[in-house]
Amino acid sequence: MTTNLCGLDSYQRIFELQQREVAPLNQAVSVSDDLFRANYATYLEVVTAQRNVLEAELNLTNARRQQLLLLINLYRALAGGWTPPWTGE
Question: Which domain of life is it from (predicted)?
């Protein structure tokens, strides 16, 4: 249970850091697109900026997933899990 609490706190911090990373990367996509339209950047730079945003968003999603899995494990540890009701079949 202590491990789940520490892990939950760690993934909360990771999630917050990942959130802070996504916003500037989105701005970088916008800037690189503007530079491309003005012929000051290549399309490869635009695609690279988009890839960086996608990677950061995937990391954000994975951090949130891990956080939720740890929360589920914590609930199970405290309540002993959930047993579905018997349907009589």
Answer: Bacteria
